[in-house]
Amino acid sequence: MRALRRAVTWFGLPVLLVLVWWLVSGGSFYLPDPLKVVRAFWDTWVSARAFEDVLPSLGRLLLGYVAATLLGVGLGVLVGLSPRLRATLEPVLEFFRAIPPPVLVPLLMLLAGIDTPMKVLVIVSGCVWPILLNTVEGVRALDEVLADTCRMYGVRGGSRLRRFVLRGASPQIMAGLRQALSIGIILMVISEMFASSSGLGFTIVLFQRQFQIAEMWSGILLLGLIGLALSFLFRLLERRVLSWYYGSGAARA
Amino acid sequence: MLEISELRKVYESPNRVVEAIRSLTFSVGEGELVCVVGPSGCGKTTLLRSIAGLLPVSGGEVRLAGSPVTGPPPRMAVVFQEYGRSLFPWMTVRQNVELPLKEKRVPPSRRAELVADSLEAVGLGDAADAHPWQLSGGMQQRVAIARAVAYEPQVLLMDEPFAAVDAQTRADLEDLILRLWRDLGVTTLFVTHDIDEAVYLGQRVIVLSSSPTVIMEDLKVDLPAERDQLTTRSLPRFGELRGHIYEQIQRAREAR
Ligand SMILES: Nc1ncnc2c1ncn2[C@@H]1O[C@H](COP(=O)(O)OP(=O)(O)OP(=O)(O)O)[C@@H](O)[C@H]1O
Ligand SMILES: [Mg+2]
To answer: What is the block-wise mean pLDDT of chain B (256 residues), using blocks of 10 residues?
Structure first.
């Protein structure tokens, strides 16, 4: 009974949406019914394409995301710990953050070509800002009694960074990483739509141009599933890293 | 051991200037236990933080074993008034107590021993694997005390460490501090707002005026060295000392 209710809350809405889709999909050429899309999904993505288009896309996403994390957290800690640096940099950072990263694609194409480096750079340039700004915020909000405790008991240098600064700022850092993840997926697709010969974004545009409508839809479905899987993985990580934060009730306060 | 001379502290912010401490001069001998009492807001925490080298002073100086204190000295431990915020919520109780020892590069076996002993001493032997936020306020306070004790400091500063515990635990902790102080010979400065506690624990009691703060009285507690909750507190001399200090604090209040 319990399991049934769980299943209903989890799958109820998706099933309903698919049903609605089925009902409205009847006549239109541009909106094929779910069965067709699922078949296209199987034929299109469960094939060599998974290695030629999907994996490279995900690889670039991972690379860009990791680079943005290192850069954002590293710089964020530096800026957060130094009030002077913060005062000079903050307006500039806010400005860069306000630029929508897709407009950087043409620029980065000029600077870095159209291959992998450009695409990774686009992802980095979009993901780094939420990570950076959230890290700065988290480091700035560190408890001063804890900071005094560190000073008193000789906790300094790398140990202070690992055991106090990064841990204490981790709730905000994780919030930044979460925002960056969805931005990263968007930019992964966009960077491949501009100038490319492979990748998920490229393939979806290609299907659209060739009027392979069911295939195009299946690509969109795949992107949705990838996003879902990544956010699930992220949640697992977050649970582990922030268990103290949720347990202590600080998250609710 | 600890010499405070003409210490002065003024907090200055753009819209407010607070003279927290006007001028304080006193010293604490090696191995002595001195209590500081004073009304709320008189600058007890400010005094302690200045001695610990956590706060730049506005005048005068603090000397520890002859050399001026400019930053937190090694071998000095503090139990902060905000004990709850002084524990790392992402560490267990054991890790909290162990961290300073790791930084001091105490070998692992000795470390385990110190942690176990100090937690045992404050009655938290079985809470070692809990996180601080799973403990009550009084238990958290005892973790902070255990951490300070395990550090084996030369000088121990405590800021109202028993504010959040019930009367019975408080009495036990008072005796614990006395025992540790006697066993380890650690120089101790103990801030409290409880006059009875100050007289019971201290070899000396320093009474502070209300802000701007000066010393009202530096009183030697001439009670027998061996203290006991029942007998010491019922000595006639205990009542006299306590009455005397109470009067002083009352006067400090009125003078405001
Ligand atoms: N960081 C600060 N900035 C400005 N003023 C401060 C600061 N800290 C303390 N003060 C002021 O200094 C005075 C003394 O404060 P302090 O915390 O030392 O008192 P206290 O004796 O410890 O009080 P309590 O018994 O309530 O803990 C108060 O008037 C307080 O407002
Ligand atoms: Mg105080």
So the answer is: 92 90 93 92 92 93 92 93 91 96 94 94 91 91 93 93 84 88 91 92 92 87 87 90 88 71
**String of DSSP letters for B96-123:** HHHHHHHHTT--HHHHHHHHHHHHHHTT
Q: What is the pTM of this model?
A: 0.88
Beta bridge partners of B64: B2, B67
Residue A98's Cβ-side half-sphere holds a number of Cα atoms within 13 Å equal to 6
Among A233, A245, A106, A248, which Cα is nearest to A181's? A233
Strand partners, B125: none
Which of A120, A118, A117 shows the shortest CA–CA distance to A106?
A: A118
Chain A closest-CA separation from residue B86 CA (Å): 5
CATH fold of A33-252 reads MetI-like fold (1.10.3720)
Domains for chain B: give ranges and CATH numbers.
Answer: 2-75+153-255 (3.40.50.300), 86-152 (no CATH)
Task: Kindly determine whether residue A250 and residue B71, on different chains, have CB atoms separated by under 8 Å.
Answer: no
Asked if the Cβ–Cβ distance from B52 to A152 is below 8 Å, we say yes
Residues in A whose CB is inside 8 Å of some CB of B read 143, 145-146, 148-149, 151-156, 159, 163-164, 167-168, 170, 244-245, 247-250
Between A153, A167, A249, which is nearest B103 by CB?
A153
Nearest CB among A153, A159, A248 relative to B133 is that of A248
Per-residue pLDDT tens for A61-120? 999 999 999 999 999 999 999 989 988 988 888 888 888 888 887 888 788 777 888 889
